Amino acid sequence: MEYIIAGYKIRTSGQHSDIVSCGIRGFAPFVADTESEYPLVMDLQTEVEIIKESFNNLTEINSFSFEDDLALCTLYSYNEGYLFEMSKGELSYLFSKEGNSNIVKANFGLMDSVDISLLRFGLWMMFGLCTVKLGAIAIHSSVLVKDGGAVLCLGESGTGKSTHTRLWREHIEGTTLLNDDSPIIRLVDGIPTAFGSPWSGKTPCYRNLSYPICGFIRLSQAPYNKIHKLPILNAIGALLPSCPPAFAYDDNLQDAICNTLSDMIAKVNVYHLECLPNAAAAELSYNTIFTNR
Positive or negative CA dihedral for 131, 118, 45, 24? Predict the structure, then answer.
C-alpha cells in the first residue's frame, strides 16, 4: 500500500499494511490512487521481529504515558538511528529507523490483531522521525482555512483551540476546518504551508489538502480580547511547545524543528491572542491576520 501525506509518500508491506482495513479511517483520503512521483520517505515493513537487546548503544531519549496510561512509550536512540517502543501489558509494539535510511521496521504485523490507538500513534511518531530533518513538523494545533489561506490556532489542552476555530466557522463566512489536532507544516518552494493529515484527534477531519499559512495564533484565556504580534524569540517560544514533545529531548531532532520554525516565522507572523470564548475574539483575530497578510 502507498499513502501520500504532506507531499511525501509512505509505502507499507506485510500483514496489517492496509492501514485503513486495520480500522484507521483517517488514512483513507491519503491512499495513493496511482503510481506517484512523490519522494518516498518511509518504507514500512510490518513483519519484522525486533529484539531491543540487539541494538548497540541504545540510549533512552524520553519516556511518557500514552492516553491515560494505555501504554508506556519510550523513544531511544542507537548509533545513527531511533527505536520507538509502546508497551501495553505483555505486548510491546516496536518501530526502528536506521540513520538516514527511509526504511522503518515494525513488529505489529506479527500480531494477530492490532490496537488501533497504538498503531495510529506509532505511525505518527515514525512519520515525524522520517520527515523532521526534511523540514516537516506535525504541530499540535487546530487549522482554519479562509480565502485560500490557513490559520493555525495553538495552545495547551483546555485553552480553547477548538472553541476558537468553531467561532470562526460560525461567525466568519467561508471558513472551514482543515485539521483539528495534528496538521503537517513545511515550506514548499519557500512558502510556509499547512497540510491536512490522517491524525486529527477527536474530530474526524481528514482532508488531503494544503494551503499557504497566513498566520499562527497562540491562545490563552482572559477576561478580555487582545491580540499582538510576537517578536522572533517569543514567536519561537510560542510554537515550540506545540511540536512533538519527545523530540525536544534529542539535539538533532530539536535542531531540525528550530531550523524549520525559524524559516517559517521569517515569512509568517505569530500572534498571541488573549481572549474570551466569543464571536468578537474570532473577528479580532481574523481582521488582524488578514489585514496583515
Answer: negative
| Domain enclosing residue 25, as ranges | 2-134
What is the value of pTM for the model shown? 0.95
Q: Mutual orientation of helices 279-291 and 161-171 as an angle, nearest 10°? A: 80
Residue linked to cell 500513534:
121
Phi-psi region of 16 (alpha: psi -120 to 50; beta: other; left: phi over 0): left
Q: Kindly state whether residues 141 and 106 are assigned to the same domain.
A: no
pLDDT digits (tens, 9 = 90+) for 162-175: 889 999 999 999 99
Name the amino acid, one letter, at 85. E
Beta bridge partners of 71: 66
The C-alpha angle 5, 122, 259, rounded to 5 degrees, equals 60
- Of 134, 152, 183, the residue that ends a domain is 134
Question: How would you classify the pairing of strands 2-5 and 270-275?
Answer: unpaired
DSSP element (H, E) containing 125 = helix 116-131
Q: Give the tens place of pLDDT for each residue, 109-136.
A: 999 999 999 999 999 999 999 999 999 9
Same-domain check for residues 125 and 149: no
Separation in Å, CA 44 to CA 16, 18, 162, 217, 258: 11, 11, 33, 35, 27
* Domain CATH code at residue 153: 3.90.228.20
